[in-house]
Amino acid sequence: MTSPYDGRLLGTLDMADGSAVEQALQNASQLFNDKHRWLPASERIAILERTTQLMAEDAESLVQIALNEGGKPLTDTRVEVARAIDGIQCCIDCIRTERGTEIPMRLNAASAQRIAFTSKEPIGVVVAVSAFNHPLNLIVHQIGPAIAAGCPVIVKPAEDTPLSCFNLVDILRRAGLPDAWCQPVVTENLVVAEQLVTDPRVAFFSFIGSAGVGWKLRSRLAPGTRCALEHGGAAPVIMAADANLEHSLPLLAKGGLYHAGQVCVSVQRVYVDNQILPQVTEQLTALVEAMVSGDPADAGTEIGPLIRHRETDRVAAWVDEAVDQGATLVTGGQRLSAAYFAPTILLNPPVQAQVSQQEIFGPVICVYGFDQMDAAIAQANSLKVAFQASVFSQDIDIAMHAYTQLHATAVMINDHTAFRVDWMPFAGLRESGHGVGGIPYTYAEMQIEKMAVIRSSAL
């Protein structure tokens, strides 16, 4: 693995071939099938509590590993590590609050002399495939709920950022988790990765990554395998004429350029009432141009590198295409180096341009003027992807109109589209995903609800 910032070697890992994947699957399935080896809730809580303690003690090391392999600036990486520690605590809270339900009986002759209730059990072997952009926190979101739920988990981190994952698994094992309960692998090729994901011993498949890969793998899952897919979007923002620019524009700049735009709900398409379009464009440009691109290890850096040089080339090509088709380049628009693309604002790119149709996953914000809000909402809703959206207005009726009309699983009111806390639901619509993320929701999906019905003449 090499640094996206300067290309230096960060470490090496053995790649898993087909036999290694088969061994991992055997380990996990044999463990799950022997209920005598299941970890009781009290032990899972103790392991996860020790994990949070070890993570807190190793926090600066975790920051450096994630920063070096992912390129996210220091300040933001520290936030990610703090979130990851809190995410493990959230997993503990899930165990502590787990409960079944009573199913009503004795309501008619058929249900007489009976009582029924449910309890939770782990679903089975979990396979988690993760993405590069949050190399520690995404892993926590996938393997943390699995361990909390009592599921053996095999995790495949992104090939660009595997070190945070392997380090976290090492911490879990130091905290007392037996090795077979969490096995990290980096497969040697896509054939071996597909072998892992599509095996019939897999009960639940957790995927964070591109839509093309996610939907393809879902189509090849073994019968009975459940899944959750988290893909990207092209997050829309609606700015009404009464939007508070002093409040909203710094949020939009941060939400669009955080981690160089490499976030699945980054601010991408900003629809602005033409009455305030000149002010928004001028003030947003000033904010963007003031943001510092540079060494992610420097405390003052706000925008780091793109994960791969070919991504810099792709973003450049999309921006050039939009300008050629009539977009106004307000600022940026050029490579700063092989790893960096200048933070960019495009004004009124055509609707058919790739920057208007697809997830940019780069430091580019597109601004569009509108006269009628419903027309802007229609354009915001026009894509095959739909995830989080936002609206800025001081009028509650305008805000709620946008909330009801936008196609999204979450609409932020007077906040940017990338807002997230780890206990809230997080899910894409349409081609943006399948199932619901967020630690408590993932925890629930990795369990089954098992019912007991008791017949007794004493009832």
Would you write up a description of this structure?
The mean pLDDT is 96. This protein has two domains: 18-231 and 432-454, Aldehyde Dehydrogenase, Chain A, domain 1, CATH 3.40.605.10; 236-413, 3-Layer(aba) Sandwich (Aldehyde Dehydrogenase, Chain A, domain 2), CATH 3.40.309.10. Helix 12 links the parallel strand 11 and strand 12. By secondary structure, the protein is an alpha/beta fold. It has helices at residues 18-33, 41-57, 59-70, 74-96, 137-149, 163-174, 190-197, 211-219, 245-257, 277-290, 309-324, 354-357, 373-380, 396-405, 439-445; strands spanning 102-103, 114-122, 125-129, 153-156, 182-184, 202-208, 226-230, 236-239, 269-273, 328-331, 344-347, 364-370, 385-386, 388-392, 410-413, 429-430, 433-434, 447-455. The termini are far apart. The protein is globular and about 75 Å long. The strands form four sheets. It has a seven-stranded mixed sheet with strand order 10-11-12-9-8-14-15, sandwiched between helices. Strands 5-4-3-6-7-17 form a six-stranded mixed sheet, sandwiched between helices.
In short:
The protein contains 15 helices and 18 strands. The chain is of the alpha/beta class and 459 residues long.
Can you tell me the CATH class of the largest domain? Alpha Beta
Q: Low-confidence parts lasting 5 or more residues at pLDDT below 50?
A: none
For the record, the CATH architecture of the largest domain stands as: 3-Layer(aba) Sandwich
Structural class: alpha/beta
Which percent range describes the beta-strand content?
Answer: 15-25%
Strand order of the largest sheet: 10-11-12-9-8-14-15
CATH superfamily of the largest domain: Aldehyde Dehydrogenase, Chain A, domain 1
Terminal CA distance reads: 65 Å
How many domains? The number is 2
Report the C-alpha radius of gyration, rounded: 24 Å
Helix content: 25-40%
What's the total number of strands? 18
Q: What does the largest sheet look like?
A: 7 strands, mixed
Question: Helical segment tally?
Answer: 15
* CATH fold topology of the largest domain: Aldehyde Dehydrogenase, Chain A, domain 1
**So what's the overall shape?**
globular
